[in-house]
Amino acid sequence: MAGPTTAERGERQQLDSGPPRPPRIGWPPLSRTRVIVILVGLTLLAGGTLWTLYGSQWLRVERVTVSGTDVLTPAQVREAADVPIGSPLISIDTDAIADRLRRKLPRIDSIDVTRSWPDGIDLKVTERKPVLVVEKGGEFVEVDDEGVRFATVRTAPKGVPTLEITRGPAASLRRFGTERLAREAVRVVAVAPAAVGRDLRTVKVRSYDSISLELSGGRTVDWGSSEKSRAKAATLKALMKASPGARHFDVSVPTAPASSGS
User: Fold this and answer.
1) Which of 19, 87, 102, 227 is the 20 to 30 Å CA partner of 59?
2) Could you give the CA distance from residue 227 to residue 223 in angstroms, rounded to a whole number?
3) How far, in Å, CA of 59 to CA of 86, rounded?
4) pTM of the model
5) What are the backbone dihedrals phi and psi of residue 201, each rounded to the nearest 5 degrees, phi first?
C-alpha cells in the first residue's frame, strides 16, 4: 500500500501546526551597539539642554520689566523684588518673588511674575485702591475695598472720604473690633448711590448698627448696619429724588425711610 503523497504530508503538517501565523510587523531588534549609541546620544542631548539652561550665558537674567504701577514706581518694585541679575532664568523662583513683593509693598494687591525668554523677568502689578482713609497723627491710613489698611500717606487722596470710628458702646467694639467695623463701612460705601459717592465726605461708625454718612452741604444719612445695604441704597436714591431739599435722611429701616430739614 502506497504512503501519503508529498502534498498530503504538507497539508497534514499545516493542520497539525494550527492556522498560519500573521507576518511580524515592527522594528527589527536593535543590536547592542545601536542601543549604546542611542543611550549616549540621549545623555548628550540631556546634558546639553541642562548646560544651556543653567550653565550658558545665553539664558540668564539681564532685565526686570515692571508694568501696572500707579502710586508705586518701577524702581521701588524692582528693588523690593530683588531679582538676582545674572542667575539662570530657569532657576528663578517666581512664587518667592511674588511673596516678597506682597510682604514688602502692602500697596500691591496682586502681582504676576513671569519669565520672559531669553533673559527677562516681567512683573505685572495691580495696586490696591483706597476707598476710605483714616486720619492718624496728622497722616492718613488708606483702606481698600476689602477693609485692608495698606499704606500711610501724608496727604489724603483726592475724593476719598474719611472713616471715623467713634467711641460707641464698648460691647460693640469688644465684639466686632475696629477692623470688622471698618469692613462694614466699606460695604456701605461700595453700594451707596453714585450721587452719594460723589458727595460723600465722612463715614462715621459708632457701632455695628450705627453707621452714618456725612455729605457735602451739611447733609447726613443714617444708614444703620450694613445689612440690607442694597435695599437701603435704592431707598436713599428714591428718597433724595423725592425730597431734594432735605438735609437729613434715615434709611436704617429701608421699608420705613424718613427725611427732614430743608
Assistant:
1) 102
2) 9
3) 9
4) 0.74
5) -110, -45
User: Which residues, in sequence order, are CB contacts of 91 under 8 Å at separation 6+?
Assistant: 54
Kindly list the domain boundaries of the chain, sorted by start residue: 63-127, 132-257
Question: Options 2.60.40, 3.40.50, 3.30.70, 3.30.1490; which CATH number does 132-257 get?
Answer: 3.40.50
CA end-to-end span of the chain? 138
Higher pLDDT, 15 or 88: 88
Please, which contacts does 74-78 make with residues 24 or more away whose CB atoms are closer than 8 Å? 76/105, 77/101, 77/105, 77/108, 77/123, 77/125, 78/123
* The three grid cell numbers given for residue 219, joined into one nine-digit string: 447733609
Rounded-to-integer distance, Cα 167 and Cα 161, Å: 19
Averaged pLDDT score across all residues of the chain: 85
Rounded (10°) CA dihedral 194, 197, 199, 200: 160
**Which is the CATH superfamily of the domain at 63-127?**
membrane protein fhac (3.10.20.310)
Grid cell 540668564 in the structure block, residue: 60
Q: What is the rounded distance in angstroms from the CA atom of residue 140 to the CA atom of residue 62?
A: 38
Give the pairing type, strands 200-207 and 162-165: parallel
Q: What whole-number distance in Å separates Cα of residue 149 and Cα of residue 171?
A: 23
pLDDT in tens, 174-191: 677 888 999 999 999 999
Per-residue cell: 49:
539642554
Peptide bond preceding 257 in cis form (omega within 30 of 0): no
Phi-psi map region of 34: left, alpha, beta (phi>0 left; psi -120 to 50 alpha): alpha
